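Long-time lurker, first post. I've been practising inverse folding by hand and with some scripts of my own, and I keep getting stuck on stretches where the structure tokens seem ambiguous. Below is the full token string for one chain I'm working on. Before anyone asks, I'm not after the true native sequence, just a reasonable design that respects the backbone. If someone could post their per-position residues I'd love to compare against what I wrote down in my notebook.
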């Protein structure tokens, strides 16, 4: 069940002075030095795992599906059950280096609400879109993005995240291998039915600061709070409003210290509609840094580092979080992390959260 308590009670456990807050950021809290083991490790893919997403079955959460990209010129989009076993008749093959995948619910298509999975296909510069749970293509062969971009590598589509606003409009936010540093690295598209039951994309805005250091791939959207976060590899995590009408001002840059290598996978665990955690992969250290989702009580754009957790997944790139109970294995949520041995690792949320979750339960009771 969702944990219906204020996240402020968690922060009270970490009630400290300004100097102590800095010390927490410099020396993250850890439960222990042990490596967290996954409950399950998925079947292997053919080439190179990269990014997962989870479709929650509204009729029976225990029948939910895990989607994961296999990054190669002859790549694919794999589908797994909640034990990490491949669902063979749903796997999409023959994609041209699919990088990332995201899922959104309730897209109006052909006159009915349809759940969709959107995959970034790098070598064709296209979004590939499939209905869920049947995994049927609904994109008419793919939707091109970054049209008109002449920068070398500037059309090499990598990251993808979906945003559904309060009125039901669904947007795709696309990241790429490289781009300008002038605040137009990410392009955001409105997704709509083209009138024939296929998806079309209309450019809504260009935004996003870029350090110029490496690339921007991992993107996550907080639908309820209306924010976009993305990993500027080697620099930190940027935060913007998800709604194009709210402008392109950067709201925050955090997670800038304490990373061994790249800033990678981003995922959100939701305690309530407005509280929870933001997890960021410290790829080179095989660990995740966990930040407050809602920020501090006096500054929603200040995201404190709460703890760091080491995981068995090796050099994890993409990750995904489910914040609701799915089955007896994942009663408090599911965390999925890519591992560089061609697998995805499935963790129980309580194993990732450790003493933080125990503290929340104590405050709740």
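-- Answer (accepted) --
I ran through it position by position. Result:
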């Amino acid at each position: 069940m969702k944990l219906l308590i204020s996240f402020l009670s968690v922060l009270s456990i970490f009630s400290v002075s300004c100097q102590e807050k800095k010390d927490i950021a410099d020396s993250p809290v850890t439960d222990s030095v042990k490596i967290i083991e996954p409950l399950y490790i998925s079947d292997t893919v053919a080439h190179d795992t990269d990014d997962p997403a989870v479709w929650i079955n509204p009729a029976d959460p225990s029948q939910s599906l895990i989607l994961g990209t296999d990054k190669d010129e002859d790549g694919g989009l794999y589908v797994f059950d909640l034990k990490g076993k491949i669902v063979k008749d749903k796997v999409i093959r023959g994609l041209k280096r699919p990088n990332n995948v995201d899922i959104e619910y309730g897209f109006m298509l052909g006159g009915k609400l349809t759940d969709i999975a959107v995959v970034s296909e790098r070598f064709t510069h296209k979004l590939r879109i499939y209905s869920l749970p049947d995994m049927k293509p609904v994109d008419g062969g793919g939707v091109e993005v970054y049209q008109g971009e002449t920068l070398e590598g500037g059309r090499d589509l990598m990251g993808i995240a979906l945003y559904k606003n309060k009125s039901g409009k669904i947007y795709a936010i696309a990241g790429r291998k490289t781009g300008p540093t002038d605040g137009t690295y990410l392009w955001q598209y409105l997704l709509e039915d083209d009138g024939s039951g296929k998806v079309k994309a209309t450019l809504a805005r260009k935004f996003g600061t870029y350090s110029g250091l490496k690339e921007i791939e991992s993107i996550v959207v907080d639908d309820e709070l209306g924010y976009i976060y993305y990993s500027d590899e080697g620099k930190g995590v940027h935060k913007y409003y998800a709604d194009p009408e709210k402008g392109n001002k950067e709201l925050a840059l955090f997670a800038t210290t304490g990373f061994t290598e790249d800033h990678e996978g981003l995922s959100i665990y939701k305690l309530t509609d407005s509280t929870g955690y933001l997890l960021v992969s410290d790829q080179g250290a095989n660990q995740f840094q966990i930040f407050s989702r809602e920020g501090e009580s006096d500054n929603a754009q200040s995201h404190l580092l709460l703890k760091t957790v080491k995981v068995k997944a090796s050099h994890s790139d993409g990750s995904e979080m489910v914040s609701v109970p799915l089955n007896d294995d994942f009663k408090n949520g599911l965390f999925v992390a890519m591992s560089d041995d061609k697998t995805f690792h499935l963790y129980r949320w309580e194993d990732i959260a450790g003493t933080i979750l125990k503290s929340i339960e104590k405050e709740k009771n």
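A couple of notes from the structure itself: The two ends are 14 Å apart (CA to CA). Helices lie at 8-13, 18-26, 349-353, 355-364. Happy to go over any region you disagree with.
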